[in-house]
Structures are given as structure tokens and as C-alpha cells.
Amino acid sequence: MKAAVLTAPERLELQEVPTPVAGDGEVLVKLEYCGICTLEQRLYTGAMKMPLPLIPGHEASGVVAASNKGPFGTIPEGTPVALDLVTRCGECYYCRTGQSNLCVNRFQNGRKVLGGFAEYIAVAAKQVFPLPAGLSLAEAAFAEPVACCIRSLKKAGLGLAEDLLVIGAGPMGLMHLLVAHCYGARVFVSDPDPARRAKAMELGAFLSLDPIAEDLPKAVKEHTEGRGADACVVTSPAHEALKSAVDSVSKNGRINIYTSYNDRPALPVDANTVHREQTLITGSEGRTEHDFLQAVRLLGFGKVRVAPLISACTSLAKLAEGLRAAMNPANYRVLLEHKAE
Ligand SMILES: [Zn+2]
Ligand SMILES: [Zn+2]
């Protein structure tokens, strides 16, 4: 089969590699779509390190090509599926306590990780999530990032019909917006880019705000009887975003830091304010199997409509180009589409 193999930073080679075979209890999946996420972009630029060579890609969907009988039955050939490709050990403390996003053995050398940038993949049956009827394979490639937003909003403790502020309207900010609507939330979105603000409004934001031209905390408070947002998700690594988040939430406000940083910014809040206002500042990364299942169901029920976030599709042969397109802030998600070969 063909696969895009990252051999060194900025070196993605289209290689002929052996087609995997489904081992005991494994499923062979013919891949159809794979999202190009920031993880792949960071691997490609070298900002994130993993043992190379490696086939990147972790937001994949496809069709079951062969199923090896596991102890609990098989998933029939031809079943359309979404794949959970960030493997967790299932044995460490975090895995055993329902916090597998914090698994200490993720991405370790010698483990099978990622692999979505190939024609086929063999995975454990537990990594395979059959799709509800009516969910397209292209949309199913969003199960993984949507699951990360579900984890993030759970960490932010978003309640029914609350006010949520999402800082940053890139693909992850906008997916937070879509998932928050499932909670009946009223969503404020902040981004300096007018095109992204327009996209947020198109996707049903209550208000989109320019954090440069406007006083973000003041604008949010004007619409919430002076209180501020009940919860806030920070998806932009800009340092000012942290200050805005702290100043824009209500008493008992919950802030989830979703973005990753290349530096280590300090939190712009004093302990007495946290004490008096019960401000909660937390973070989240990744998702659990439960979040993944909920993402597949929300997508399948038509509650989270991600099609407007697909900016372009690319092919295996043009993947390096696709990666660069994914890094262009004018684009949302770029998908690897195997049919495009
Ligand atoms: Zn991702
Ligand atoms: Zn683990």
C-alpha cells in the first residue's frame, strides 16, 4: 500500500509499504479520510517530537476491509467507521480511572501510534467506532477533534443554557462553538480575524467580538447583566487571551485552557480573586473513549454539523502541500481524501 511517511522534519515521503494484516482481535480498515490537525502540523515542522520514521494522521475514518474474530465477535466488512488512533495503554493509573487522555504511555517508542496517512491500517477492535446511519465518512473524520471539545467543555463544567466565551475562532474554537450548542449555550466568540468572526456567526454564535478593537470583558458583561460568561475556553495561545478570559468570566466562572503553548505564560490572576470569586482555571488535552463515543453520536444525530469547516481536500501524493494549506490561517480543516488519488 501507499503511505506518507515522515522521515525527518519537513520530509514527508510517499512510500510503498507492506499492507498491514489484522492480527488477533484486530480490524483492517481501508482509510477514506484523515484530518490534518495541529498535531501533524507540529510533527511536520519539528515543533513536536516523536520517534521517526512515522506515518502521521490521527483523525481518520474508513471502511472495514477485514475483521479478525476477537473474543467478543467481529465488526462486519464494509462497516463505515471512525478510528481512535491515539493509543492508550489501558493499564496505567489514569487509564484505569477513566482518564485515558492522561495515559502515561501515549506516544511511547515502540508503540503503534497515529497511522492515518496511509491506505490501510490494522487496529484493535476497541479503536473502531461504527458510524450511525447518515453520517458521511468525511464528517466522521471530525470525531476525534469533536471528542477533544467535549472533554474541554466537560472540564469547563459547562451547564445547560449557560453563557460561554470561546477565545479563538480557528477550527478548534469553532468546533467548541458547535458542541456548546448541544448544551443550549449562548456562545460569544472572540477572534481578531474578521473572516473567522463571520464564520462563527454563520455557525450560530450569539456574538462575535474583535479582541483588538473592542474591550472583550466589557462587551461580554454588557450582554450578561454585568456578570460575565459562566465559562470560557481559551483556544488561542496569545497571552492577552488569558487575561481576557480571567476578566470576562462571572463569579464561579470556569476557564479551560485548551490551547498548547510554546512558552510557559504565567496565569494573570491573583489568589484573592480566585478565593472571593471562586474562579476555576483548568486545562484539558485529548479525550477519553467515552468522549469519542459521544462525538460519534453527536455527529451521527446531526447535532454537530462540521461540513462548513472542511476547507479543502488533498491526496496522499500532495500531502505536503495539504499540510502547508492546513497551516494557512485562512483555512479551517484540510482533509486527506483517498478517493482524490
Ligand atoms: Zn486532532
Ligand atoms: Zn495508560
How would you describe the overall organization of this protein?
The protein is α/β, with parallel strands linked by helices and 341 residues long. The chain has 11 helices and 15 strands. Strand 12 (249-257), helix 9 and strand 13 (280-283) form a beta-alpha-beta unit. Helix 4 (143-155) packs across helix 5, helix 4 crosses helix 10 (289-300) and helix 7 (216-222) packs parallel to helix 8 (239-248). It has 2 domains: 2-142 and 306-340, Medium-chain alcohol dehydrogenases, catalytic domain (Quinone Oxidoreductase, Chain A, domain 1), CATH 3.90.180.10; 149-283, Rossmann fold. It has helices spanning 38-45, 93-96, 137-140, 143-155, 171-181, 194-202, 216-222, 239-248, 271-277, 289-300, 319-327, and strands at residues 2-8, 11-16, 26-35, 59-67, 80-84, 120-124, 128-130, 163-167, 186-190, 207-209, 229-234, 249-257, 280-283, 310-314, 333-337. The two termini are 13 Å apart. Strands 3, 4, 5, 6, 7, 14 and 15 form a 7-stranded mixed sheet that branches. The model has no long low-confidence stretch (mean pLDDT 94). Residues 88-89, 91-92, 94-95, 103-105 line the site of one zinc ion. One zinc ion binds next to helix 4.
Number of strands: 15
Distinct bound molecules: zinc ion
**Nearest-integer average pLDDT:** 94
**Helix count from the secondary structure assignment:** 11
Largest sheet: 7 strands, mixed
CATH superfamily of the largest domain: Medium-chain alcohol dehydrogenases, catalytic domain
User: What is the CATH third-level topology name of the largest domain?
Assistant: Quinone Oxidoreductase, Chain A, domain 1
Strand content: 25-35%
CATH class of the largest domain: Alpha Beta
How many domains? The number is: 2
Relative helix content? 25-40%
> What distance lies between the first and last C-alpha atoms, to the nearest angstrom?
13 Å
H and E string: EEEHEEHEEHHEHEHEHEHEHEHEHE
* Rg computed from alpha carbons, rounded to a whole number of angstroms: 20 Å
Shape: globular
> Structural class, from helix and strand content?
alpha/beta
